[in-house]
TrEMBL record, chains A, B:
Subunit structure: Homodimer.
Stored Pfam families: dCMP_cyt_deam_1 (PF00383)
Biological or metabolic pathway of the protein: Pyrimidine metabolism
Localization of this protein: Cytoplasm
Name of the protein in question: Cytosine deaminase
Residue intervals of the CMP/dCMP-type deaminase domain: 1-109
GO CC, alphabetical: cytoplasm
UniProt organism field: Hymenobacter mucosus
UniProt keyword list: Cytoplasm, Hydrolase, Metal-binding, Zinc
């Protein structure tokens, strides 16, 4: 999870949205990613999607775990279900996230760490950049 | 829908997966896209995702309609829900697609045209490239 937090912080330093993700297999990093809406002008590059993009074409995801600093939105949750990723470890779901029931109903294990560091990072960002945040979640 | 079919056929000619999508607003094309798993070595570039990528950052999607040759997978369906696209027009859902209930439960209008041309395109592709197709739907 620390690598995902590092990705999120790096994204914020780039002027982007501080959400980071890491895809793991057998305790090893397959790929890291971060939200790149701002950096790449790309609305589909949420942190989870960027990690999956960086992982390239994989034979299977059934033996992977996705770590992400924030509860996935429906785009990312739908991707987790479609890619058959069996487990997601989430930094926090206080500032955003309504996909837990959808994920669990499709058999995905959801572990929420509720890390104060992740909550603080998003709280600061939403306070400083409310317009950008609302764009990212389409509110 | 013809533009989406054209995208799908172009994708197949490129050696890719024949699924195309077009985002429309007020009867005008915002962006076109096609599945680019093969062409860009990119597992998140389904046809719908490519169209949304090509559309760039939009202020809102509430006034758009997404046309796509095949029933969206959960990645694309989750994206439609998250982006608040109110209506999806689908070429066919015979060869693939289980997301209709999810989409409709989130208020998305789903129109299925059941076009023989779209069914034939996917039937031919799945017959010719079963391994590639199974990779794309993570089976």
């Amino acid at each position: 999870m620390q690598a995902a937090i590092d990705e999120a912080r790096q994204g914020r330093q780039e002027g982007g949205i501080p959400i980071g993700s890491v895809l793991m297999r057998d305790g090893k990093v397959v790929a890291r990613g971060r939200n790149k809406r701002v950096q790449e002008n790309n609305p589909i590059k949420h942190g989870e999607m960027d990690a999956l993009f960086n992982a390239g074409r994989q034979r299977t995801y059934r033996d992977t775990v996705l770590y992400t600093t924030l509860m996935p939105c429906y785009m990312c949750a739908g991707t987790i279900v479609q890619f058959k990723i069996p487990k997601v470890v989430v930094g926090e779901d206080r500032t955003f996230g309504e996909s837990r029931e959808f994920l669990e109903s499709h058999g995905v294990e959801v572990v929420i760490l509720d890390l104060p560091e992740c909550v603080q990072m998003m709280t600061d960002f939403i306070r400083d950049e409310p317009t950008l945040w609302n764009e990212d979640i389409m509110e």
